[in-house]
Write a structure and sequence with these properties.
The protein has 330 residues and is an alpha/beta fold. The chain has 13 helices and 10 strands. The two termini are 36 Å apart.
Length: 330
Amino acid sequence: MLRLDEKLSRIRHGAYRAGDFILGDARDGDLARAMLAVGHHFGPGGAPGRPRSRAEFLATVQQMVEQDVIDLMLTSLSSLEVVQGRGLYDTSRVTPAIRANDNTDHWQFRGARYDREPPRPFRSSSLSEARRLGCDLGLYGLSFSNDRDADLLALRHYAEFREDARRRRFRHALEVGNPGPASGLAPDQVAGFVNDAVIRALAGLTSRERPEFLRLTYNGPAALEELASFDPSLVLGVQGGAAGTTRDALELVAQTERFGGRLALLGRRIAQAEDPRALVSLLRAVADGAVPSAEAVRAYHGALQGRGLTPLRPLDMDSQVTDPVLRAAA
């Protein structure tokens, strides 16, 4: 059994323990930000250098899986095909997963204006192809926009996806992000709207149809605790959002675990770090309660110094919690 499945089993049976927090790396950005998603090299003084090529990007995926600290690696189907062709997961205990759909709210091309309209459901990846490549888990994004017709269409497509997944014995996790400005929701209404949307989306599903876990925007302790206490059978996780300071990334994992979340599936916060593998090791230590987030920042800068890498920010700045949602409970 892969490490992810062992942890999910203990969490669902109320046997969660230190070390069971699930940590995943999301490298599926080529389905959203396309060429900008692969990251870049760092130049003198930590300044962004030339963009990575696809081959270089896939090498970072392989390095992260081979490090064997994360539990889950999320990629596009095309990336999975390449690394699986190299036998990356043949003996690994890391679970491969694909982005199972790519709604228009994920399209972030240079100059794009898709975020000004309600999202449209879309799926480009074949579940049968994923199964052929040895993958049976996908992350499905369900987008709500406070538009009746758009939200109804999203739920219909989610139902069609579940039927397709059932036929192919394919598991899924569910991602529900925060609606954009076009939703008309006030900032203090967003967390409640999302929580209600999640429970509404799952209310008509049997236990066999439900997602393996949820990936949500972290909307603060109260919102996370509300979901965790309402339905303890849900395995709640967070997404990383935009890259911030190193302390932001570490504090996000610490607060998620403290307030009832059991998973963090981070993307840019890992990929844009000066040393992604050093950061992931410290994210694991913080999630397991071995190191406080502030101390972990100092350890991270020590690791950078040991490798001769220039940090993007000085230690005092990188130790700050800059995300207002995180700052309130730090």
